[in-house]
Specification:
Layout (H helix, E strand, L loop, with lengths): L19 H13 L12 H10 L16 H5 L3 H8 L51 H15 L5 H16 L7 H8 L19 H6 L8 E8 L4 E13 L4 E6 L23 E5 L2 H12 L16 E4 L22 H6 L60 H4 L14 E4 H9 L13 H6 L10 E4 L11 E2 L3 E2 L1 H9 L3 E2 L6 H9 L12 H7 L10 H6 L5 H9 L15
Parallel strand pairs: 6-7, 7-9, 8-10
Antiparallel strand pairs: 1-2, 1-5, 2-3, 3-4
């Protein structure tokens, strides 16, 4: 007895109430062809700022950062914003900056226990003392570009911040560590597993696509299949001819004869005709697929009686060798040989340190001459019977042109080699300031910077004939320095003395420069002997160490320097008698 359908107990859906005014407005819009625009999702200003400063899709990654962070943009800011940003700039960007040593420096250990008051390092950080040239400093621009790279690479994104936090927490807990090199090696080089009797050894790693790309399989090759099924007591042999190769998919099309019949003799020739209807064609993309198709067409081994194993060990490649004649096509498999079969059976092993060998045909045996007629290079040893080139030591001297005037004598010489010329090692002021900021150089009036300090700190790599101080980068020099070079330019002298430093040029010959670099003080330094050197090092304009002004101002003066400063300029005042003519 059928029951009538019961009424649903769910509440009916509410019909939306539509006002007449809204219907009229929608009808007018449809008539006029206008559609109300969608409301755009409003993004918070905080989210926009977060995307701009942290996400790789920020517009800051596609523009020149120097066009944003510069002096002009700084002047457009309000005074309150400048005061807030001043605390983010390094202290070297302000005019009141004075370099100090770290409290851990050995020279500051004695001052650690004193009652000296700590000076507020931020007292001079204000917009009034800011040096606007700091925005063009190479270190500031490098930091800005690094920040731009961090935004582009996603280093400052929220996901990366979470990864960094987990990494730092893991380091603190001791649960995270970098793998040892032994662990990395074992992960990249797993131990080799012993070969099974069912696998083809190294051939198990071969792929059909690799053989096609390596030209190990070509159109016209014959694949000879042979396998012994011990459980059935039957040996299956079958020849398969490669008819076509698809280079895009690495699939091969083969011709095979069904049953136990061999391939027709006509298909085994160089230019075979079209296959007969009895010949089957199949396209395969793996060796197991090829073996399955061959056994299915052979028909004597069911799939249940086929043991698992690598199919490559059952195939060998037969290919025509160079120089095969037409009368040899009547031989086995059309005159093909098995020169390529070993490559399929053994395969190419994984390259390790144990089986590295030179590339094929990259080496050849050494040619040894004069070892008898049987070697092929006996007798005249490949030099011929007579002539100049057949003699021992037949090489002519460089520049010999057969007896005619050589080029070295054909053209006259020009110029000369100046024996008094010197090669200076240049040092610029901006490089000195950079080395001082890194703490690699330090100077005082009693211990000035010499060639030894510059060489040991890496500021220069060779002293050559002495150090020459140049004035390039004088605008970056902020620290008073005391230096004793061999020569100094006028711009460098002016820049250093303007900051309260000192420059005194000292004469060095080869031996005294070597003693300076080695730190030896047991030998007396040489004095200038040439007229040009005497004029240079006795001139106060050049800040020569033998000038009278330098003797009075230098903190450390040797007695010999005082004597030389008095004796060397005397030649200017000495006269001589002119010999009278009789």
């Amino acid at each position: 007895m059928s029951e009538r359908p019961r009424r649903s107990t769910r509440a009916p859906a509410k019909v939306p109430v539509v006002h007449a005014s809204s219907l009229k407005r929608n009808a007018d819009d449809n008539i006029n062809g206008t559609v109300s625009p969608r409301k755009k999702t409003k993004i918070e200003e905080r989210d926009l700022l977060d995307i701009l400063l942290h996400e790789p899709a920020s517009a800051l990654t596609t523009m020149d950062i120097a066009g944003i962070l510069n002096a002009n943009a700084w002047m457009e800011l309000s005074p309150e914003s400048r005061d807030r940003l001043c605390h983010l700039l390094p202290p070297t960007a302000f005019e009141g900056f004075e370099p100090t040593l770290d409290p851990s420096h050995p020279s500051q250990l004695d001052k650690a226990g004193s009652d000296a008051m700590d000076v507020d390092v931020n007292a001079f950080r204000c917009a009034a003392t800011l040096n606007l040239d700091a925005f063009q400093d190479s270190h500031f621009l490098a930091a800005a570009h690094t920040y731009q790279d961090h935004i582009f690479s996603g280093w400052r994104s929220a996901a990366q911040a979470d990864l960094r936090a987990r990494f730092e927490q893991g380091v603190r807990d001791g649960t995270l560590h970098a793998p040892w090199k032994d662990e990395v090696w074992e992960g990249q080089h797993p131990p080799e597993v012993a070969e099974s009797s069912l696998l083809a050894g190294e051939a198990a790693e071969l792929k059909l696509a690799d053989l096609v790309k390596g030209s190990m399989l070509k159109v016209g090759d014959m694949l000879a299949y042979k396998r012994n099924f011990t459980n059935l007591g039957r040996i299956v042999e079958k020849d398969v001819l490669i008819q076509d190769i698809n280079l895009r998919t690495s699939a091969i099309t083969v011709l095979v004869q069904p049953g136990s019949e061999p391939l027709p003799r006509a298909l085994q020739e160089r230019n075979p005709p079209d296959p007969t209807p009895s010949t089957r064609s199949m396209t395969i993309s793996s060796p197991s697929q090829l073996e399955t198709g061959v056994l299915d067409l052979e028909g004597h081994v069911s799939r249940a009686d086929r043991p698992n194993g690598n199919a490559w060990k059952n195939f060998s490649v037969w290919r025509w060798a160079d120089g095969v004649w037409d009368n040899e096509f009547s031989l086995l498999r059309g005159g093909r040989d098995t020169a390529m079969s070993g490559r399929i059976r053994t395969g190419s092993a994984r390259v390790t340190l144990a089986n590295l060998t030179p590339a094929h045909k990259s080496q050849h045996s050494q040619k040894r001459v004069g070892r008898g007629q049987g070697s092929g290079y006996g007798g005249t040893a490949g030099r011929g019977a007579n002539g100049q080139n057949s003699r021992t030591g037949s090489k002519v001297k460089p520049g010999f042109t057969g007896g005619q005037t050589p080029l070295s004598k054909r053209f006259p010489k020009r110029g000369f080699t100046n024996q008094n010329d010197k090669t200076w090692a240049p040092v610029n002021l901006d490089r000195l300031q950079h080395w001082i900021n890194q703490g690699r150089l330090d100077s005082s009036p009693s211990k000035p910077i010499t060639a030894r300090e510059l060489l040991l700190s890496g500021c220069i790599h060779d002293v050559h004939d002495g150090i020459k101080l140049l004035g390039d980068g004088a605008e970056h020099l902020k620290t008073p320095i005391h230096i004793t070079p061999a020569r100094a330019s006028q711009s460098a002298i002016k820049a250093i003395e303007g900051l309260g430093g000192s420059v005194y040029c000292k004469y060095y010959n080869t031996l005294s420069l070597r003693d300076c670099v080695k730190g030896r003080t047991d030998r007396r330094a040489a004095a200038p002997t040439r007229r040009e050197d005497i004029l240079w090092y006795t001139s106060w304009r050049n800040r020569g160490y033998l000038s009278k002004e330098s003797i009075l101002r230098m903190p450390v003066v040797e007695d010999r320097w005082r004597q030389l400063s008095e004796e060397l300029p005397k030649w200017k005042e000495q006269g001589f008698d002119v010999k009278k003519k009789r």
